[in-house]
Structure formats: structure tokens, C-alpha cells
Fold this sequence. Notes:
Layout: E1 5-9, H1 15-21, E2 25-29, H2 35-45, E3 50-53, H3 65-69, E4 77-83, H4 84-87, H5 94-111, E5 123-126, H6 140-150, E6 154-159, H7 174-194
Parallel strand pairs: 1-2, 4-6
Antiparallel strand pairs: 3-5, 4-5
Helix pairs in contact: 5-7, 6-7
Amino acid sequence: MHEVIVVDDGSCDKTYAVALNMGAKVLRNQKRKGKGYALRRGFAAASGDVLVMMDADLSHLPEDIPKLVRPLTLKEVGLVIASRVLGGSGDLTAVRAAGSTLITKFFNLLFGTRFTDIVNGFKAFRREVARDLTSNGFEIEVELVARCLWMGYKVVEVASYERARRYGRGKLKALQDGAKFLARVAYERVRTLRRPH
Length: 197
């Protein structure tokens, strides 16, 4: 059994109507509040034990969902990342690719990990990993991974190809959001060290 939840974060197009007509459960923010806020709202509304997040621009491949969910049958795995580094991308610009690499390497340096693509928005994870998140922006990608590791779960990556965006325009601002990503990585590392185990 599964459910499809679409969070319309103040869009000006027909996202809300199209998703509703397709049978999805649709949550609508009248004003744009950010990707992190929209995702947290969707997570709270979900009823399943395993959640999958993906973008609505059709760049992520729905047929890869089973591949993302499968590792979660292992009790030690808490989150699975669809890696564009391992699977390729038809959507990443040179600037965005460089930013993604920098953020991932910075995370690996601080957390002692070897991930290839922590900022991709195509992820599957256990419900408890999504509890008590606070990010309102794109940096929720970092918060999810850091929280999963703090909870003692493993994070794994699987190869997934990202198609060129079919609909809409990207909201990410390379410099502004890139700085927020890096700041969030540092913040999560400090918070991890201060959390009681």
C-alpha cells in the first residue's frame, strides 16, 4: 500500500489542480515558504513507515523508487540517497555540479563519510528520521543525512539518473543557497557533537 502526497508551495501554475485530478493528496501553501517547510509538511501528513521524497519537475525517475526503498529492508539502514554522481544527470549545470561536489566533500570532511551526492532531493528513509526537522530551505537535504547518522543508522547511496527538468524553473540560487548548505553542514556537525547519545 502506498500514498502520493504533493505539497504545492505557493506555485502560480496548475500544480495543485493537476495533482488533485491525478488522485494525489495535495497540501497547499498559499505563500511560498521554502522547500524544507514544504517537505516537513508532507512528512507530517504521511502515514507510512518509509517515506520517499522527490521533485515534481519529472527529473527524478519514479521507476527507481523500488531501488531506493530496497536497502531499507536492512534494519541498520535509515536513509538511501539517489546519487547523480553514480547515475549521471542531464539537468546539472557546471555551477550546480561544482556546488554539489563542494557541499558533499565538506560534509564528508566533517563527518568522516564518503558520500557522493548528499544534496540530491531524491531520497528514501525511515519515518523516524524525518521527525523534529527544522530546515525551511534546501538545506533540509543536509539535515536529513546528519540526523540519520546521529540516530545510528547507515546512509547508503544507489545510482540514479536525473533527467533534464521537464517542467517549471529551479528555485535554487547557487551562491545564496550554497552558503546556507555549507553553514548547515557546520551547524549539524556541532549539534551532533553536543547531542547526548
